[in-house]
Design goal:
The protein is mainly alpha-helical. It is 42% helix and 4% strand.
Length: 255
């Protein structure tokens, strides 16, 4: 097992090791007499390297939205994510039936929280920016149950079968198309490719922008579906340059 794991780099090592620990544990290999002990647990434990992606800037994201190379459906997805602070998976699965333009509300049950003891269910009162992009999504001529949708250039049977609806956008497709649009807009060319901000970091920028506009932390925390303030603060960090803060003191010793 140790020799097998040694062929992988640090992050791949931790993922493969974790999987094998589960295989031994959940397959009851020891209990069934297939192994004397959980061999994977006896191997070296390595700490997975932290992924450090640069944060989006407001100007950088605006450049991507304004770029002619960014598909219209992706522009709407970016604006929807920025105003609503919802995760990628919830953006692409957001149903039109969740919208009430008359009452100016938008409901969502963030998928990541549905396994919690107290799942989060939000009824969002839409501000002007959010209402504008939701209205655009609702008025599109393509018949789709989803707010974010597009018309594929080709409808291959295997692609249609893999999706809930032929117009839907999968989370992975959203991520890939955003990365392509980001690089085509040349907004982060100065950042190494592996550290350029992804679609996920839009959520962090939106949270920070809400903070800059003086919305209270409790407001932002509720919108993001966070259980505690600490996680919300983590998302808001990294958008300002670190400045030296001087502590004013006195030194009045008489010599």
């Amino acid at each position: 097992m140790a020799e097998y794991l040694d062929q992988f780099s640090n992050n791949a090592y931790t993922k493969h090791r974790g999987l094998w620990v589960q295989i031994f544990a959940f397959a009851f290999a020891v209990a069934k007499g297939l192994a004397e002990r959980n061999n994977a647990e006896l191997t070296l434990v390595k700490k997975e390297a932290e992924k450090k992606r640069q944060r989006h800037t407001h100007e950088g994201l605006k450049t991507i939205i304004d770029a002619a190379t960014t598909p219209p459906w992706l522009k709407r997805a970016i604006r929807l994510a920025l105003a609503s602070l919802q995760r990628r998976e919830d953006i692409v699965t957001w149903l039109k039936s969740a919208v009430d333009m008359y009452k100016n509300t938008l409901t969502v049950s963030p998928g990541k929280t549905q396994g919690y003891d107290n799942p989060v269910h939000l009824k969002i009162t839409m501000g002007a920016a959010l209402r504008e992009v939701v209205g655009e999504c609702m008025r599109l001529p393509i018949v789709s149950p989803y707010l974010i949708h597009y018309k594929p250039k080709a409808r291959r049977r295997e692609q249609i079968d893999a999706k809930d609806h032929w117009t839907s956008v999968t989370p992975d497709y959203l991520t890939k198309e955003f990365s392509k649009a980001r690089d085509a807009a040349h907004t982060y060319d100065h950042v190494p490719a592996g550290k350029r901000p992804t679609f996920h970091e839009i959520r962090a920028l939106g949270s920070w922008l809400y903070e800059q506009q003086k919305f209270p932390t409790e407001y932002i925390q509720a919108l993001m579906g966070h259980a505690d303030e600490k996680m919300t603060k983590h998302y808001q960090e990294g958008h300002d340059e670190k400045k030296i803060e001087y502590l004013e003191v006195s030194a009045e010793l008489a010599l």
